[in-house]
Specification:
about 1000 residues; mainly alpha; 41 helices
Length: about 1000
């Protein structure tokens, strides 16, 4: 077979003769783990053995494709995953007395780190999902709470680092003569324990990062006024950190608010809860008079708003206080906790391991990524991308209390800065539509004010409910319910105000285009409003880093799909000028996820449009059952979440959505717009009004949500579905182009090969679209690279491609370990139905048979055939489908690698350009070259490699390009590339014919 991949050993490496012995040995080791090391009771043991026995054959048959360690290590991972699923999904009680075990116990007994566990768990769940569904029901994934637990771990890591940094800056060790801060001191443990108990006593199980940071800052305030003044690492009188002062001394609360970007009101409330906890649990009494307080600690500090507890951290009372907190926390985690969060205060705990969770199996909002890449076709030019230098931050100085205000950029500081925008810009707005927005509502064919306000109340009520934010592990349920209700109501109001603000901006822009205020088509569209509300709610949740309502939770609550949301992301960003950079990046990352995989999943509305735009695909779409279900009604959502309808009449929105006449406007200019270069538009994030007026076409929002079957007069009879799919495919092509170039450069492939890979990807997207169904676009990219390498007779094994892909910022191991296949009953290997296989099996069995003719077309000696091109365009019934074209001209703004043997880079940025790309607080942490691409290589080895290369006397071949490409050049070049006609790809005739390569055994 031409282009066939050399198969790897997909089995365990054992023969049928000794597979039974291997399974028996594994079962013995699992029994020993359960009984000897974990001491499971009979009920839990029985359930664990049942799940293990039903999954061990999957483990044996996939041993080589699971993990990257030895078979023994993979077996330990599998056993740990089995035990965690049993502990979370079984009907037994969750307390230790009932025989349940925690994740920490499982990992310690299995000698695994929490980082490695979270990286391997998604692969386990993918392989055994059908078994878990049979044993525990279809909602097992929700009950497992893996994403929430991992996000909680990431946040705790960030909070512990923030606490450690602050403590080392504020206090000395117990021994004042010691020059190194001692984070193992009792005072340090007291602060972290007090914070943990405060977390579990006040809110739900999974906290948002912003509220947790406020509580952590309140704990710092308690430590400052209670730890002996002799252990302070600062002078309260002249420290630039405590800059907020009154006539009575330093205003401690105001100074901490300035440092951590929080508000005095929120910090005061957090401090009040902390003081209440000290009174209730530690049984400490506040000082009744100033004379009783520690005069040394309160010297030069304004006592207003502060509560001092007498002798709370004196030497004779510190040990008993710690014991009380330890007991309180242990009781809490024994009830329902999975993690012993005390370990985060100990960097030497083996359970933490090494590595990062943010770039692993699960994407987490706001977490730090190695390259912080947002390869989205709708992105700000200020956001880091493969076309701009990576932001490697140098280690921050230990002392951020110095006069310099360049504090290190951390997940905590970023979250607090973004929350400050929400608090200062959105919170002061009214919770009702403004007068101008009400005029737009009343100017429609009928007043839509009641419909819009009622809809917003129901949808936001469904998103922001107390049940959405996890179970609680504290015993004070009444207090917790009250605080959860306050928190959810505040977030709901923020989302509502943001929704009205952006909606008004959109209406204002479109009224200028239409020269009138009648926006009936847009404002009466149910799906559009739900997308806008979902986008607003997602930004509020992302601002507060709420881990129990992670994307795509808002989609499930609102009844829309990922494809629907992708239609409003670009417009939402462009019509909210004040949106912080972090939230723009969040929306960019969401769109990247939508394009790469989510929009191709089963049940997405994209297939409802695709079946209209590409009738030839209807049979395959129906065979796989990919079409989306009808959008649930507002009444159904309100009933499901027990939301009061407020006495308003029911909305006839279902009729509006399905009626072919409802979305029509009276003007003959009403039409779907032509495809636009979305990357260029969103790079500038300017209002689209001027560009649309020049093209004399209406804005895309009204047509994007129109019925897919409605014809588009401006496109020669093309339906709105065809136009919408065309825009969607162009975004896919842009995203693929960026990723293809990045991976090809990493693999050191030539420009000619790169163009062939991109052309093959475009042809597959156009002519073999079904290859994308239920799959990730990176899977198609990997197969395209390998196929072009084979057809070009390059020595590039799949192993090397995967090795390069592992270094890509968007890499997820399940992309190449678990590719979806759906075998028909006529399959030659005897297997039928749905399955997940490794990338090489997919390439040989699915990709090559489907794309063989396209591989030959882009191979050496092939030349573009215009007639065949036109014929294929007609056959696929998709006008303007991607054709064989030269790779898009994306300007290279990344650092140049000047050595093939060493990781030496030279950045083309000059200082003026760097100042426009970097904020003042991050300039000093930017490293332009010498950054290692190896995970565990130290900076000293990087510098040594640079010195050895420079001293070797070898000349660098080629000329280094130090030219700087401006943002305008990027935008204009992309625009010209979009408008230019398809260029024929330069092809070099092959000297030797393509031959069949036998597969290796």
């Amino acid at each position: 077979m031409e282009g066939a991949a050399k198969p790897t050993s997909s089995g365990s490496g054992v023969t049928d003769g000794d597979s039974g012995g291997a399974a028996a040995s594994m079962e013995e080791r699992f029994v020993d783990l359960c009984k000897s090391k974990l001491g499971l009771d009979e009920s839990t043991m029985r359930q664990a053995m049942q799940l293990f026995n039903e999954t061990k054959n999957i483990l044996l048959s996939n041993m080589s494709s699971l993990g990257g360690g030895s078979p023994e290590e993979i077996e330990r991972f599998w056993s740990a995953c089995v035990l965690y699923c049993v502990s979370r999904l079984s009907k037994a009680g969750k307390s230790k007395e009932d025989g349940s075990i925690t994740l920490c116990q499982i990992l310690r007994a299995s000698k695994l780190s929490i980082v490695d566990f979270f990286k391997e768990m998604p692969q386990f769940c993918l392989k055994v999902s059908h078994i878990l569904s049979g044993l525990y029901g279809s909602n097992w994934e929700k009950l497992l709470e893996m994403k929430e637990l991992q996000a909680n771990v990431v946040h705790l890591c960030s909070l512990s680092r923030c606490y450690k940094r602050a403590y080392q800056e504020l206090f000395l060790s117990n021994d004042a003569k010691s020059s190194e801060p001692n984070t193992g001191s009792d005072y340090y443990r007291f602060g972290w324990l007090l914070f943990l108990v405060l977390r579990i006593q006040t809110f739900g199980k999974f906290r948002d990062l912003v509220t947790s940071t406020n509580e952590l800052v309140s704990v710092l305030a308690v430590l400052i006024i209670h730890i002996p003044a002799s252990l302070r690492n600062f002078n309260i009188k002249d420290s630039p950190y405590f800059g907020k002062k009154s006539d009575r001394g330093v205003n401690l609360i105001a100074s901490l608010c300035e440092k951590y970007h929080t508000s005095e009101d929120e910090l005061s409330k957090a401090l009040e809860k902390t003081n209440t906890l000290i009174v209730d649990i530690l049984k400490k009494k506040p000082c009744s008079a100033a004379s009783e307080c520690q005069q040394d600690n309160l010297s030069s500090i304004d006592p207003e708003g502060l509560t001092v507890f007498k002798d709370m951290l004196e030497e004779d009372s510190l040990k008993p206080t710690l014991q009380i907190l330890e007991k309180e926390y242990e009781n809490a985690i024994n009830t329902k906790g999975e993690l012993d969060e005390r370990m985060f205060a100990n960097d030497e705990d083996s359970l933490l391991g090494s590595g990062s969770l943010s770039g692993g199996a699960i994407n987490l909002p706001g977490t730090k990524r190695k390259y912080d890449v947002m390869a989205s076709p709708a992105k700000s030019i200020t956001s880091p991308s493969p076309m701009s230098p990576p932001r490697f931050c140098l280690s921050p100085s230990r002392n951020s209390f110095c006069p310099s205000k360049m504090a290190p950029i951390t997940p905590v500081s970023t979250a607090m800065t973004t929350a400050k925008w929400l608090r200062s810009t959105i919170t002061p707005l009214p919770s009702k539509p403004s007068g101008e927005l009400l005029r737009f509502f009343s100017a429609c064919d009928k007043d839509v004010t009641d419909e819009i306000t009622r809809r917003a109340g129901i949808i936001l009520g469904a998103i922001f409910t107390s049940s959405s934010f996890g179970d609680r592990i504290c015993t004070n349920v009444r207090s917790t319910n009250r605080m959860d209700a306050i928190w959810t109501e505040q977030r709901k109001m923020e989302a509502l105000k943001l929704y009205y603000r952006v909606l008004e901006s959109m209406c204002r822009a479109e009224s200028q285009i239409l020269s009138g205020n009648n926006l009936t088509s847009l404002l009466s569209n149910e799906r559009f409003h739900r997308c806008m509300i979902a986008c607003s709610a997602e930004l509020v949740l992302a601002t507060h880093k709420t881990v129990t309502m992670m994307f795509p939770a808002v989609l499930e609550k609102t009844g829309i799909t990922a494809f629907d949301l992708s239609k409003v992301i670009e417009s939402f960003v462009r019509h909210e000028d004040s949106l912080p950079r972090e939230l723009k990046r969040h929306l960019n990352s969401l769109e990247e996820r939508l394009l790469e995989s989510m929009a191709w999943e089963k049940g997405l509305s994209m297939y409802n449009s695709l079946i209209v735009a590409r009738p030839a695909l209807s049979a395959e779409i129906n065979r796989l059952g990919l079409l989306a279900e009808p959008m649930p009604s507002l009444d159904a959502i309100a009933a499901h979440h027990n939301i009061s309808l407020g006495g308003l009449p029911p909305l006839p929105f279902q009729k509006q959505e399905h009626s072919p006449d409802k979305d029509d406007v009276r003007s003959p200019k009403r039409a779907c717009t032509e495809r636009r270069n979305v990357l260029v538009d969103s790079n500038s994030f300017r209002s689209p009004v001027k560009d649309i007026l020049k093209s004399k076409l209406l804005p895309p929002l009204q047509s994007a949500f129109a019925s897919p079957t409605r014809p588009n007069p401006a496109a020669g009879g093309e339906t709105c579905a065809e136009t919408g799919i065309g825009v969607f495919f162009s975004k896919i092509a842009k995203l693929a182009a960026i990723r293809i170039r990045s991976l090809c450069e990493r693999l050191q492939l030539s420009q000619q090969v790169l163009e062939r890979v991109y052309s093959l990807f475009q042809q597959i997207l156009s002519q073999q679209t079904a290859l994308f169904f239920n799959r990730h676009i990176d899977q198609i990219i990997l197969c395209c690279i390998y196929g072009v390498a084979k057809i070009s007779q390059l020595e590039l094994p799949f192993k090397e491609i995967i090795f390069g892909y592992r270094k890509q910022p968007q890499c997820k191991t399940q992309v190449f370990r678990a590719v979806y296949v759906h075998r028909s009953p006529r399959s030659r290997n005897g297997k039928t139905g749905e399955d997940h296989v490794d990338i090489i099996v997919f390439y040989n069995q699915i990709f090559v048979p489907a794309a063989k003719h396209l591989l030959v077309a882009v191979g050496p000696g092939a030349s573009p055939n215009k007639k065949d091109e036109e014929k294929s365009s007609v056959d696929c019934q998709f006008p303007e489908s991607p054709r064989l074209a030269r790779f898009p001209n994306l300007p290279d703004m990344s650092p140049k690698k000047v050595s093939a043997a060493h990781n030496v880079y030279v950045s083309p940025l000059r200082s003026a350009k760097m100042e426009t790309l970097l904020s003042p607080s991050s300039k000093s942490y930017y490293a332009c070259f010498g950054e290692s691409t190896y995970a565990f290589q130290s900076p000293s080895k990087d510098l040594k490699a640079i010195n050895n290369h420079l001293n070797s006397g070898k000349k660098v071949s080629g000329r280094l390009n130090f030219d700087v490409v401006s943002d305008l050049v990027v935008a204009s070049s992309l625009s010209s590339d979009q408008n230019a006609g398809p260029a024929a790809m330069e092809v070099v005739p092959a000297k030797t014919p393509v031959k069949c390569e036998p597969s290796e055994s």
